[in-house]
Design brief:
This protein is an alpha/beta fold. The protein has ten helices and twelve strands. The chain folds into two domains: 147 residues, P-loop containing nucleotide triphosphate hydrolases (Rossmann fold, 3-Layer(aba) Sandwich); 69 residues, no CATH class. The protein is 32% helix and 25% strand. The longest helix has 18 residues. It is found in: Cell membrane. It comes from Caldalkalibacillus thermarum (strain TA2.A1).
Length: 275
């Protein structure tokens, strides 16, 4: 299992610094979720880890090697990324899209092989897309399209999967479908998964390790049960809330304060203050 970490990583755009001198280690074989307010640098950090954004300073290390010193093929054989809201060319079928995941293994000397075919079929089966293989990607539902892109990443046969908001624009049923798929890939195959999520409650349910990005660095990281507190939500998101235990999953459940129906008086001082 390859190790993934950053060392003194500084990222930015123009005159703006987004991440400053960050030292971070991603747990191997776990699901890590990045959380934080809009514009805090979650996606920027993920793009840099995937070698899509060059650091101003510092480095991303893959198995102890600066990822910038590795070839594109070397990186693509160890790490796959699903960017936010990817778009396939018109008319491209699911099968054609998934086959793109085998590009790190192709060369003038090594053309399409039985090994490539098996990897593609395995990816289609894992994402329940075998029956949709000949369908154009743009004809699928949102959840099906997202599964097709994940299948392409699976066809790369990497130990690390990076996903930037994989549930964006999906309804709740499709969000659960995608997160359950990623959970199974982690638990059944031991893949290291790093993803950005906006929904704090789903992040707490699926994450083994959570990283709260804040003010060019990390506010807190650890198991959701350890770090998800009203104080963290107040500081990182500027939102007052109560954090209770999910009665079904036992994970932290964030209940934000806001307008709507009358707030029930539950006996907590903070709740009474907002009632």
């Amino acid at each position: 299992m390859p190790t993934l970490m950053t060392k003194g990583l500084t990222l930015g755009y123009g005159e703006t610094t987004v991440i400053n001198r960050l030292n971070l280690s991603i747990p191997e074989g776990k699901i890590t979720v990045l959380i934080g307010s809009n514009g805090c640098g979650k996606s920027t950090l993920l793009r840099s880890i995937a070698r899509l954004l060059k650091p101003r300073e510092g480095a991303v290390l893959l198995d102890g090697k600066n990822i910038a010193s590795l070839s594109t093929r070397e990186v693509a054989k160890q790490m796959a990324i699903l960017p936010q809201a990817p778009v396939a060319p018109d008319g491209l079928t699911v099968l054609q899209l998934v086959k793109q995941g085998r590009y790190p293994y192709q060369s003038w000397l090594k053309q399409w092989s039985e090994e490539d075919e098996q990897a593609v079929q395995k990816a289609l089966a894992a994402t329940n897309l075998v029956d949709l293989a000949e369908r154009p990607v743009d004809s699928l539902s949102g959840g099906q399209r997202q599964r097709a892109w994940i299948a392409m990443a699976l066809a790369q046969e990497t130990d690390i999967l990076l996903l930037d908001e994989p549930t964006t624009y999906l309804d709740l049923a499709h969000q659960i479908e995608i997160l359950d798929l990623l959970y199974d890939l982690n638990r059944n195959e031991g893949r290291t998964i790093v993803m950005v999520l906006h929904d704090l409650n789903l992040a707490c349910r699926y994450a083994d390790h959570m990283i709260a990005v804040y003010r060019q660095g990390i506010f807190a990281q650890g198991k959701p049960e350890q770090i998800m507190t009203p104080g963290l939500v107040e500081k990182v998101f500027g939102l007052s809330c109560e954090v209770i235990t999910d009665p079904f999953y036992g994970t932290p459940l964030c209940v934000p304060y806001g307008k709507g129906k009358q707030l029930r008086k539950l006996g907590h001082d903070k709740v009474k203050a907002h009632a």
